[in-house]
């Protein structure tokens, strides 16, 4: 399978203010996006891909800087989300540090005197992002998405599309996600935020003006996050208790140091933290973890998730979870499936027996990818202007009960 | 049941150097300890209690400062570890910040010119602590402990006693512990250490000289630790997504802030972190987490834990785990039990169905405490000079297969 190749990001400017959940608004903003494949004549083969915490519009192909897209193994010609069939859109959310208007950009408010937003960038929610995405989709002349797709925080956006614009999305593919964060999820986010906010280089979020970068806090935040992305078993398999080969002196196993690296897993985490602190923006980290915290579509329905999804019952869903994901465990996906089944919505559910924890949604697991491929075959079959030759099912589609809820389970959970 | 009452800590000075695993040694040190109950004429009713990361010699009763001991619910007259029968010793390990010689004490090395150790305090291991404890026990005139007991890191010390001094300990009670840290365990320790070490107030560990305290790092370290001590479910039950009652303005659910507290769990964690940073020493935190990292008795036996425990086969063991403990999950305790069974050592195993995660070992769960009570009844029955009236079993002891391995399971794990 080949890549979509070299991709140039595009930018779309919006002069009309975007009202936000918080009551504030975002004025005069730009969204950066990429597209792969071709929008068909009926304009009904568009698939929107929503990104998670540490990602961007650059979903597939190779960027001008030479970086491969974060979901390149899934999106491309002949890949599970086949760009020969679909017009795929990767979009960067407002508040990000990867191109769309965010805290590192100049605050257009005259009172800001040309300074960057920093901590003054307004708090954005999953719903705000979906509203911003909907405007871009509308401008592209797409009345209805063939599908909206996302993993983790991206999966929350995919779900929110079906709640805010149910008539504008045919299929929702929500991978490794949850209907809301647990107390433990929020707790991990909060520790990461405290590490950043209490870094003396943070300066209340106005570090750009101060000429500093709160790298210490970003490093610790990334290290914490990274632990929650991996399963206990995969960390054990990858590192175990292996020590740094250069560590032991005089044939001893350890250097007996409290500050130096002794174990490989420490070296790995420090490297991940260092790398992250070089490119990620601290205010963006705060904003995105807060968007995760706030997401709770059931809240407006007295905590009843089934009531929340009543509006989305005409959409069709694929929900995917991974057995070793302890950040958003399969149980969290089953809550979503239950709410959809309660509404007699058409839902397929796959619980993939994969060892990689939460990160599995980004990896090329054959069972996972075959579920995704089968589902997008089904989405393609629903297109009004489908190419009959291509649409002939070369692989079995995920079986469906003709509109009745269907739950497919891939692999097993013990 | 009553408490052991007001307790005065005692101190014992050691002039002879303590050789350490690292190859260094500890000169001229003091150990602080407390005792509860009375040493009998045969001097065979002593039980040593080993402490975990954030604890001390103050196991039971009320300190001169008015603090209740950390295991007061377990240790006292008529309690599961009954001080009417046993002479219980709580001991503070070297490297601690609670009284025994540690990084906050003056370095006796003349080259240090009367400065505190700080980062120059030598790295200590679980085995070093056990050696220090053994000297104190010897000085108390106790040739053999009726039992050594500990939870978490304390459980590792209890296990290490049976490996280093098998002839000097009759019973070992190891609660909520593991035979070594996993990669994930080490990873969490490392993030906490990085938060401390990269705090600008840390000054390479010589913050006392600099007149600072790395409170930011200590706060983050404690917050991370705290998450791993609680189960996901118990955090959910305790906090869920509850917001601070004073948080919402104008009837809104949230303040929409990236830096202020929105959720109760954030408030709780910040409070725990703040409190901890007021009394705990940063170098001690590094030393104790490193002792956790280094503990690996199987390492000297090519990773074969059964081979490691061959020397301890004459000791008798109670191993206890808790179903929702994800820091040291039941599987980790079962590894210990298997190694003991492989050696035909006498071992009882209880897996307690408790919701509180790792912290359960400190709590007063009726099933947990009944297992502990029954086991210590059995220990009492083995004393040479037992009081026949008291030793008559008023409660059923944990059954034993007359020296054959026995595994008791309390509650169920799914």
UniProtKB/TrEMBL annotation, chains A, B:
Q: Where in the cell is it found?
A: Cytoplasm
Annotated site, Important for acyl-CoA specificity, chain positions = 327
Enzyme Commission code(s) on record: 2.3.1.46
Catalytic site positions: 152, 325, 358
Gene Ontology terms for molecular function: homoserine O-acetyltransferase activity; homoserine O-succinyltransferase activity
Q: Which UniProt keywords apply?
A: Acyltransferase, Amino-acid biosynthesis, Cytoplasm, Methionine biosynthesis, Transferase
Q: Do you know which Gene3D superfamilies this protein is assigned to?
A: 1.10.1740.110, alpha/beta hydrolase
Swiss-Prot/TrEMBL catalytic activity:
L-homoserine + succinyl-CoA = O-succinyl-L-homoserine + CoA
Pathway the protein acts in? Amino-acid biosynthesis; L-methionine biosynthesis via de novo pathway; O-succinyl-L-homoserine from L-homoserine: step 1/1
A GO biological process of this protein is: homoserine metabolic process
What's this protein's function? Transfers a succinyl group from succinyl-CoA to L-homoserine, forming succinyl-L-homoserine.
PANTHER family attached here?
A: HOMOSERINE O-ACETYLTRANSFERASE
Name assigned to this protein? Homoserine O-succinyltransferase
Organism taxonomic ancestry? Bacteria, Pseudomonadati, Pseudomonadota, Betaproteobacteria, Burkholderiales
